[in-house]
What we know:
The complex is a heterodimer of chains A (321) and B (230).
Chain A: E1 2-6, H1 8-21, E2 26-31, E3 36-41, E4 47-53, E5 60-62, E6 69-74, H2 75-81, H3 85-91, E7 92-98, E8 105-112, E9 120-127, E10 145-149, H4 151-158, E11 167-172, E12 176-181, H5 186-191, E13 194-200, E14 206-209, E15 213-218, H6 219-223, E16 232-238, E17 241-248, E18 274-280, H7 285-288, H8 301-306
Antiparallel strand pairs in A: 1-5, 1-7, 2-3, 2-6, 3-4, 4-18, 7-8, 8-9, 10-14, 10-16, 11-12, 11-15, 12-13, 16-17, 17-18
Helix pairs in contact in A: 1-2
Chain B: E1 2-5, E2 28-30, H1 32-41, E3 47-54, E4 58-66, E5 74-84, E6 103-106, H2 110-120, E7 126-131, E8 137-142, E9 147-152, H3 167-170, E10 178-183, H4 184-192, E11 200-206, E12 210-217, E13 220-227
Helix pairs in contact in B: 2-4
Amino acid sequence: MDYVATGSNVKVLAKAIHSLSRIGEELYFESTGRWLALRTVNSSRSAFACFHLCPLFFQRFHTPQGDSFRCKMPIKSVQAVFKSLSSLEKTVEKCRIEWKPEQSQLTFTLHCKMCSVLGLLKTHNLSFQDCESLQAVFDKERSPNVLRAQPRLLVDTVLHFPPSLEEVTLSVTSDRMWLKNHVEDESDQSQAMMTELYLSSEEFEDFVVTLANQHHFCLKELSAPTAPPPDDFMCDAHGLIPHCYGTSEIAGPSTQINQPPRSTHAPTPPNHRLFSCFSLSSSQFRSLFFGSVLPTPSQGTSQTLQGQDVLASDSEDEGSP
Amino acid sequence: MWCELLQVNFFDEYQIEGVSPDANEICLEVAPENLSRALKTAQNAKSVKIKLTKKHCPCLTLAAELPSLSSVSRVVTHDIPVDVIPRRLWHDYKEPSMPDFDVSIYLPPLKTMKNVVDRMKNLSNFLVIEANLSGEMNLKIETDLVSVTTHFKDLGNPPWGDDASQSRSQSRDPAAMAHARLDIKKLLQFLMGQQVNPSKAMCNIVHKRIVHLIFLHEDVSLQYFIPAVA
């Protein structure tokens, strides 16, 4: 396996990794002939994030025929390769990711343009563990609610909440979306500052709400998708399980002059060069299936609850909702 | 610290119904961090409304109308919990009276003073401010290993006028220094917190007792009292 990313795509790769590190502690790495997937899931298996990088993202994309490679490693080790985002842009020309079947390590090599004559190569050999493919189970087609917006909207919204805030509540009705900070403890309520923000449906590119409801999120995970900013960012409130995904047209390798035209949106993964997907289920995960979400009275509650798939398979008993 | 703002310079609309017609005031205790954070998010707002409300507890509700991508504005609302101070405790919160000072002097440029005090904090925990009525001020630190003094001249002394209570300073030898020893962190914290350059910055020293700093900027006054340490 041999992949090379050049120019500004190195920074995009780094940002994707940093963005994943905000959600999970392990990076799941999967490469096939069609794409390279970087995925993670959080410890309570209530948030999932994934970046699919298509061959056009890379200058060199060599996966041996019929081979696919899958591993996982601590995300901190990969982050250490791409330490400082600002200096990456200035100093790194090329990033090469290699693996040979007999090796037990994944090699990341950064080619730095320190000096035109000498150059500088930073090589990182990262040990990995074998693993199963990490997948989130959801079906976009079955989403009763679809919200689609420019990423700037999400960034501007999240800014009003303190970075240390644990959870937010997201509610949708037919013409508005509300975000409120969520305070669990009764006693905390008298001390805590409550912040509420609403966005009218007009601010979204698409706003289809057939099932008005509420979710609680961990704010840290909601703000992770905002880096790197996709061109097109969609948030599906899939009944009880919202997930967000974005697609980006990224500049091809520096040797390529013409960019291919933006293709029509295809099912996962699309022909865009960078496809990112974040599934955020409520942190009150199990309690969702016991009716703690509030649908509008006109909707058939039982009908909605029965049709849901489990987001991530975690059968741990979390106690009563 | 005591700060006063004239509401008429800040608010288009201002309504208050105090405790009673003869005591038309409300006294609230609030965590400054909450208020500051709420105001920060409202920086680019088209308008901001502040109301005293009762939610789960008394709150200052700050509603900011923000610019948005559509014709409908975004509204962010912050409910900041406050404690209402009962009237019987109001005397604790009255503006402190101006102490009978020995010397009153204008401060050097804030930026310079910040830099000097910032560097001094690395050498000592205490700093001595001394000044006289001839426009001279010294900032001194002294430890076993080193002593450093920064001298300022021609600062000017504010003319407080023929007030009987200022008589102590009237009959004073203009060259004689009044000084007070302060915790350097307290002074630095105050200097670092200033966002704008005040139009007037004064320092009144009660020899070995208190340093009283007064900043005036347009119609806002800010006073800071720092007790001297032995």
